[in-house]
Each structure stands twice: as structure tokens, then as C-alpha cells.
Amino acid sequence: MKITIEDINQFEKRTKIINKVIEKKSNMPVLLTFLLSATEDNCMIRATDLETGCRINVSDLVTISDPGNICLPAKSFYALIKGKHGSLDIETSAPGSSHSALIGSMKMNGINPEEFPVWPNVEGIPSPVLNLATTLKKVSFAMGVSDTRYIINGLNLDCNEKKAVATDGHRLAVYDLNIDTTDLKDNIVIPSKAVKVLELLPENAKLSIDTRFALFSFENIEVITRRLEGTFPKWQVVLPATADLTTTVNVFRAELISKIENTMKAIDKKVLSLYVRGDKLVIFGINPDRGELRETIQLLNFSQGDFQRFDFTGKYLIETLKSSTDETVSIKQPDKCTGPLMIDNTVMMPAKDDARPKDSLQYDVAPCDRLPEMASSDNLQAEIAA
Fold first, then answer.
1. What is the pLDDT of residues 44-100, one digit of tens each?
2. Range of the domain at 102
3. How confident is the model at residue 184 (pLDDT cuts 50, 70, 90)?
4. DSSP state string for 1-36
5. What is the DSSP string of 167-198?
6. Among residues 166, 63, 40, 181, which one has the least CA distance to residue 124?
């Protein structure tokens, strides 16, 4: 094989996404490489970790002198071309000899391309998906991380309800899925790595599925991922009814993030509380070894209702707030604490603070009433387990 990359800079920009797919360590050396294949009129790059794969068309960026293919180590290749401009020749060794390539002035050892995994064939009818990257970013922060309940380590594309959903048992994020289809009614749960790759790609895609895989097609790039097996939790039962969300407060988003971060650092505490006093939203934390701290934020408006104290994990609320780009944030709560908080498109479950003494006089807010079914983290966890 002999090809010439005409513009190294553009080649690197288009193909660097494969570094998000390739594993940093693997017992299978071929999974640390990408497959570069060229026919007379087509040149493709492929990478996979056996769960998520990426295929990129670079035909418009190269000149093909002699067709062929080879597997090259991704780490070494991208270290070689990083920051370079101009053109670059790639020429492989003769068939039957060692699998290596002369790339510029470097002889790079490769792997037999016949060892590279086969690209699955997905025959489903493509369905257009608009604003895919934005949709995924709105909910992906709530995915589980290395959870033993493997299904919640992914993101659910509910094509029947036309919603993108993610949960880790502590919060539940839901956002509209703009998919143009009447035939596709599946729940497609895709792994977190595929989600992170898709967030870096253009907004609009075409989605094709079969019983095992989901294929996302863009102009020059295709991403294929294995669908996670299992039943995703019944997220609909966790969402509070809109009519029940009678208490609403609005504050500046950046200020709320800053005050939560300051409180967590000052008292070295993960679980904090929110409550309203007059025209202020109070962030309260206590640590028997450090003391207690109350940070206040001016309310932009406060609807009629009785905002009850809400205990929350600071990290989870910060991630929720950072997923938004709006200047202000709306925090909604069912009247008389009959459910969790609703923050934009995310349901926040109350956290437990076992270190907080019960009925202590140092708290100037009344504790929440006992939450009903499906209104606590325990109940969401139970639904996930089911």
C-alpha cells in the first residue's frame, strides 16, 4: 500500500476521535491499533474496543497510489503527526514480509490487518436524529460509573417516548430526543464510552439499529456500539407530576455553583442542605470537626408554596447545574415536600446525612416530612434493582 496524506493537519483533526475509542491498555495488541485501508477510490480508518467502534472516511484527504491495508499503533502514529503541516507519505512493506510501514522518515511496526475485528453489519432503516450531541450532554452526567447494575452505566434512548434518559440512582436526567421516526419504538441503551464519543461529533446523525448494535452515521464518520443488555429502570414513575411542582425558586446558576463549592471546601462535607429564608436561598452545611456554614443567595423570584429543607450531595447537584448553559436555574419542589427536587430537566433525590443529629436546636429549619413512594434515593435504587 502507498498513499499520501495531502493535509496532515486536517487529517489529524478528522481522525483524532479514534483515540477516544481505542483502549489505553489491552491484552489484545490489535485493539491498540487502528486499521488503515485503501482501495482504488476509497480510504478508511477504523478503530474499536469490541464494544464501541468508529469508522472514518478520509478519501478526500489522501491520494492513493497503491491499494492495501495495515494496522498501525495509534499512540505512536498520532505522536508522530501531531502539530505537523503539509503532506506525508505512508508506504507499507511488501506482502508476506513483516507488517511495517514507512511513514515519512520513520519505520513503524504494525500488525497483520487480518487480525483486526470485523465491522458488524447493521441493516436497520436509518432514522434522522437532530441535536444529538446537545441532547446527550444534557443527560450524560447522570450515568452510573462502574455500577454493579451494569444497565445504568449507559444512556437510554427511549425512542417510544422520544426521550434521552440517564440515572445513577441518585439523580435522574431526562431530555427530549429529536428523532424523526414512526417505526422505531425500541429502548436503546448505549455504553458510556459511545456517549462520550458521540458528544464530540456533529449534532445531526442517522440512527440504525438491530438486535445487538446501534449505528450512528454522520457525513464522514460512523460510530457503532453494542447495545447494553437488560431492562432500563421505569424512569417515568420517578418524575413528579407537573401539577405537583407548586413551589419554585429561581437563582443565578453560576452563583449557586460557586456557593455550593465554597461550602463543601470550607467545612469538608459532601452532603449539604438547601432551604429558603425570606427572599434568600440558603446553602447550609455542618461538620462536627469544622463547624457550620450558611451561604445565602438572593432569590430572583419565589412562587407561592412552602419550600422545605432538602439534603443533597454537593457533587451531584454541581454536575447537574453545569450541564446547563442558562444564566438562571429553576428549582422546583412539590408542595409540603411530597417529592424530590426538579432542577431543569433533572430529578434530584434527597441524600442521607447520618452525621447530622436529629431534632438539634442548631437547625433553624424543620426536617422534611417522610417522602412517599418513589420520592427518595432508596426507592429509585429499588426500581433500578427491579
1. 999 999 999 999 999 999 999 999 999 999 999 999 998 888 999 999 876 655 688
2. 2-115
3. confident
4. -EEEES-HHHHHHHHGGGGGTS-SS-SSGGGGEEEE
5. E-SSEEEEEE-EE--SS---EEEEEHHHHHHH
6. 181
> What are the DSSP E strand ranges found in 98-212?
100-103, 106-109, 127-130, 154-158, 163-167, 171-176, 178-179, 187-191, 205-209
Q: Say whether both 33 and 132 belong to one domain.
A: no
Element (H, E) at 217: strand 213-217
Boundary of a domain, candidates 205, 232, 259: 232
Specify whether 53 is located in the same domain as 182: no
Q: Say yes or no: 172 and 285 in one domain.
A: no
Beta bridge partners of 163: 158, 176
Cα–Cα distance, 144 to 135 (Å, whole number): 17
Q: For 343-384, give the DSSP string.
A: ETTEEEPPPP-TTSPTT-TT--SPPPPPP-TT-SHHHHHHHH
How many whole angstroms separate alpha carbon 47 and alpha carbon 75?
A: 12
Q: What is the Cα–Cα distance from 211 to 190, expressed in whole angstroms?
A: 13
Residues 195 and 111 in one domain: no
Mention every residue, 6+ apart, whose C-beta is less than 8 A from residue 316.
Answer: 170, 171, 348, 351
Cell of 186: 425500541
Query: How many independent structural domains does the chain possess?
Result: 3
CA separation, residue 96 to residues 71, 93, 99 (Å): 15, 8, 8
- Domain contains 237: no
